[in-house]
Design goal:
Layout: H1 3-13, H2 25-37, H3 46-95, H4 104-150, H5 155-162, H6 171-187, H7 192-205, H8 209-225, H9 243-246, H10 248-251
Length: 260
């Protein structure tokens, strides 16, 4: 699949409020075509310098957009993660087995709500990791296209700058994703014999919403990170996630069905 179509698909499959935060790939591609087709376009000329400067300015604006959005989401995720931990403790203190007024019905109902929120939260963070991946890949591809069509040498220096940008550094989000998975394992344990049954049920109910989009995002991240004949130092490293482990963290650790 060509990158433009892949990006369009990702935009459609993400959250509605996120759709205008992705790389303006189509517009940048049109600009590259316009610059490269303007005669005469000779490397080193003043015309070339002005066009290249404008192209870089537009790319910088895109990076500013990515950074602002990514850091806003990251801050929100930190707050929500702490709130989820506090909610779990409150339910345990209020209706858990050791509470002053234990209630199995209330406990299960409230924990079911929290678990759904955790899975959706986990899915949003996966979507943000994919947001970083897909936009970095788009920048690398549009810079490659620019250099190829104009004879410029922008890609190497620009990508080096991109690698230091907040939107590209996903260590904190990845840590929160893992903590969410550990939270589900610890608070909502599933017996081994229940896993197969619950996995099949979850596949059935996961046809809509954040859960489905997170699965699609994981598949996209694996696809754009896989090694191939076109793999280079501009490419993201392969996603170290075996096929058998790609989905279970979403589907099998689920004693309570998630209904969108």
């Amino acid at each position: 699949m060509k990158f433009g179509k892949r990006l369009k698909q990702q935009v459609q499959e993400t959250l509605p409020d996120w759709r205008d935060k992705f790389l303006s790939y189509k517009e940048l591609k049109k600009l590259v075509r316009l610059i490269s087709s303007a005669p005469p376009f000779l490397n080193g000329s003043s015309e070339y310098g002005k066009s290249e400067a404008e192209f870089v300015r537009l790319l910088d604006c895109e990076i500013d957009k990515f950074n602002a959005f990514f850091m806003e989401q990251e801050e929100d995720f930190i707050i929500r993660h702490e709130e989820l931990k506090q909610r779990i403790q409150k339910v345990i203190d209020a209706w858990g087995p050791s509470a002053s007024q234990p209630s199995e019905a209330e406990y299960k109902e409230e924990m079911g709500k929290i678990r759904k929120d955790i899975v959706n939260f986990h899915g949003e963070m996966v979507l943000l990791e994919n947001y970083s991946n897909i936009n970095y890949t788009g920048l690398a591809k549009i810079l490659k296209k620019y250099d190829k069509r104009t004879g410029g040498l922008l890609r190497l220096a620009f990508i080096q700058k991109v690698l230091e940008q907040p939107f590209f550094i996903t260590d904190l989000v990845s840590k929160l994703v893992k903590q969410c998975e550990n939270m589900i394992d610890a608070v909502f344990p599933v017996e081994a014999e229940e896993k197969g049954k619950e996995g099949r049920e979850t596949i059935t109910v996961a046809g809509e919403g954040i859960f489905r989009n997170a699965i699609a995002a994981l598949m996209t991240m694996k696809e754009i990170r896989r090694g191939s004949s076109t793999y280079s130092h501009f490419s993201l490293p392969p996603l170290n996630l075996p096929d058998s482990d790609l989905i279970p963290s979403f589907q099998l650790n689920s004693p309570i069905s998630i209904v969108p």
